[in-house]
């Protein structure tokens, strides 16, 4: 299949796909918590009675036996983590024996304490009501083995390390059940309610601030995204962070070594009902945050009022954890927001605000500048707009209406209209090729969340490449097949222009380069109206000229004597129209580029 056919097939068959969020450890890869068996969901486990139970098909075993283990409950659950441990040693965190799956589609084996297949977990956050696995007793099994399970009903609702049945080796006298006590780490701080909103006062004087839009004040403006950092103490041993923005669901900021998402130290304020949870996490790639906890945070407080979400906390400048970055280093700052469902963070609704320069967190106070538009994507948009709002539109405009003009003048051996048209269209094709490649360099592949826009871009590029190839093999002007080329060249060019305009309208809504909706859309509407009005004007002019020529005098000499003066003034008027069309298109392009430059 040709590239044109493939692009059109993609264009006709594509549907908009929505990004489906995944909860923390939704894939069940929970080996980081083999010892504690505690989900890092930013909240404590439930202390009440669990609706789930763990049973075995026997109470005695011998080394090498296979024991049936069943987890079930009166309500569904989204995740679980199952282990067997030495019941004779309450402090032991080492897993005993191995498991065998009965349903590999919904369960998976994990390696804990360097022992393969020693634990079982879920494979996704699909709802479950029952899980059945087989446990194989090892040759060196202890005299008593107890099963433990952590069950997650929802993201914020879970029961940690629930004790299950104890099974004994043959000949071992069962011990009476011992009372179990569950110890939990005391939280570093008890979150409190902020007495009032934050303010931008002091930004650049005693605290560093990142604001969007620049110069906004969270005390006065609901849609002000605000991040401030203030060092505490003369020795700057800790930093106080303030975060504020619209209460859409969550706000988060990240410390990053570069301007790419991945391997970032993340801090989030998440709306959960009428409360706000504040936690630290780590993002290893374009994935959901991992290892969420409050262990590194102190003096946590929050506020949820007036349509805004605000939180405040302290963090030591240096921490022993490798996943918490040293605040004495320089980082790019990311500021993102999005929706949250039952405490789960969904994909951010806009491109994150990224500081234009690195900042040492404990450094001197300053007001940072940021941008939501990556430079490479700004270049993509600017080059595409230059190609199709100016060079391409002027080139096709000349080919459509200016062929009869300047009949006796040539440029490098060819008619003037043809040379100008060819030069402008070659520039258009070149700009399109360069602009088309830039998003792939940025994304390092195909974007799955851009909707129809990239498919239209593929079609535009394919059609733009077909045009010069078709022109290179066109028949001579007096050939009887010339009309085929004329219609094909006009049809492909018109299709390319229409698709380019459609791609521009969809491009302004892309979250990776989200432009101001009213102004950017209005400029595009103005551009289409400007093109249509001038084309309509010259179509009327062309029709009247042909009609006048058909109704000319039978006196050939009279026609010849009167032809020069109207032709001269007609060409001059058309030249003025071309200038006005070009200036109008240039003005609209400059207005559009100024919007891109400000994001």
What labels describe this entry?
single chain; 599 residues; 9-stranded antiparallel beta sheet; 7-stranded mixed beta sheet; disordered N terminus
Short précis:
With 599 residues, this protein is of the alpha+beta class.
Explain this structure to me?
With 599 residues, the protein is an alpha+beta fold. The protein contains seven helices and 28 strands. It has helices at residues 3-13, 375-401, 416-443, 453-472, 482-507, 517-550, 556-598; strands at residues 52-56, 60-61, 66-77, 79-86, 98-101, 107-112, 115-122, 128-136, 144-154, 157-169, 192-193, 208-212, 225-232, 238-246, 250-256, 264-272, 275-283, 290-293, 298-305, 308-316, 330-341, 344-348, 353-355, 359-360, 367-368, 370-371, 410-411, 414-415. Strands 15, 16, 17, 18, 21, 22, 23, 24 and 26 form a nine-stranded antiparallel sheet that branches. A seven-stranded mixed sheet has the order 11-19-20-14-13-12-25, with no helix packed on it. It has a six-stranded mixed sheet with strand order 2-10-9-4-7-6, with no helix packed on it. A hairpin with a 6-residue loop joins strand 17 (275-283) and strand 18 (290-293). The two termini are 40 Å apart. Mean pLDDT is 83; it is low at 1-24, 178-189 and 553-566.
Question: What are the SSEs and their pairings?
Answer:
Blueprint: H1 3-13, E1 52-56, E2 60-61, E3 66-77, E4 79-86, E5 98-101, E6 107-112, E7 115-122, E8 128-136, E9 144-154, E10 157-169, E11 192-193, E12 208-212, E13 225-232, E14 238-246, E15 250-256, E16 264-272, E17 275-283, E18 290-293, E19 298-305, E20 308-316, E21 330-341, E22 344-348, E23 353-355, E24 359-360, E25 367-368, E26 370-371, H2 375-401, E27 410-411, E28 414-415, H3 416-443, H4 453-472, H5 482-507, H6 517-550, H7 556-598
Parallel strand pairs: 2-10, 11-19, 12-25
Antiparallel strand pairs: 1-3, 3-8, 4-7, 4-9, 5-8, 6-7, 9-10, 12-13, 13-14, 14-20, 15-16, 15-21, 16-17, 17-18, 19-20, 21-22, 21-23, 21-24, 23-26, 27-28
Helix pairs in contact: 1-4, 2-3, 2-5, 2-6, 2-7, 3-4, 4-5, 6-7
